Amino acid sequence: MGHREDLLEGAKRCLLEKGFARTTARDVVKASGTNLASIGYHYGSKDALLAQAYVSLVEEMSEAFDGGVDAGVTAAPGSLERFQEVWSNIIATMREPGSIWRLSAEIAVMGDQLPEVRDHLARAQREGARGLVALMTGVPEEDVPEDTVDTLGSFYTVLMTGLITLWTFDPKTAPGADQLTDGLRQVIEAAGH
């Protein structure tokens, strides 16, 4: 690997170990075996590097959302069963020690302090919403229309953000996929009356 990739991998390890606010440039340099100048050269700033590392961590999570290679989502696209399978897989990632979702809560709170990071992550969040729509509906990401990202993608993003918050504050009482699916079923039934 080159310095750019080494920095990214070192930054990911630091984020998971220390979080965003407590990770210093020196921490990243130590974890990556590079030098301070390489951060500026390759990423512009430590915060930009950490933002990219965070996005990379979230992207790596996408395989877990669909169950990974061995246990993929099997329910029909758009079904309540698929909704339950996908959210079950997502929630499983929240149960893992050192979950990146605790890091997500930290970064969300820091958004106003880091406007350039916030803007970068906002673009990445939109693509995450597109990915969730694709996973739930079975439509390839590149074919998900922008208005669907704005509506259904936003719905899934709000659900994800709420779950992150609940699992961060009190994992013992945070809802599981069964509860979310039952809640959605109740909303659908109430809308039909």
Short description:
The chain is 73% helix and 0% strand. It contains nine helices and no strands.
Walk me through the structure.
The chain contains 9 helices and no strands. It starts with a helix and ends with a helix. Helices cover 73% and strands 0% of the residues. Helix 1 crosses helix 4 (46-65) and helix 7 (115-137) packs across helix 8 (146-169).
Q: pLDDT under 50 segments (min length 5)? A: none
Estimate the mean pLDDT confidence.
Answer: 87
End-to-end C-alpha gap = 59 Å
Rg from Cα: 18 Å
Most strands sheet: none
The rough form would be described as elongated
Class by SSE composition: mainly alpha
Helix fraction, binned, reads: over 70%
Number of helices, counting only DSSP H or I runs of 4 residues or more: 9
Q: What share of residues are in beta strands?
A: under 5%
How many beta strands in the DSSP annotation?
Answer: 0
- Give, in order, the helices and strands: HHHHHHHHH
Structure keywords:
mainly alpha, 9 helices
Topology:
Layout: H1 3-18, H2 25-32, H3 36-43, H4 46-65, H5 80-95, H6 100-110, H7 115-137, H8 146-169, H9 177-191
Helix pairs in contact: 1-2, 1-4, 4-7, 5-9, 6-8, 7-8
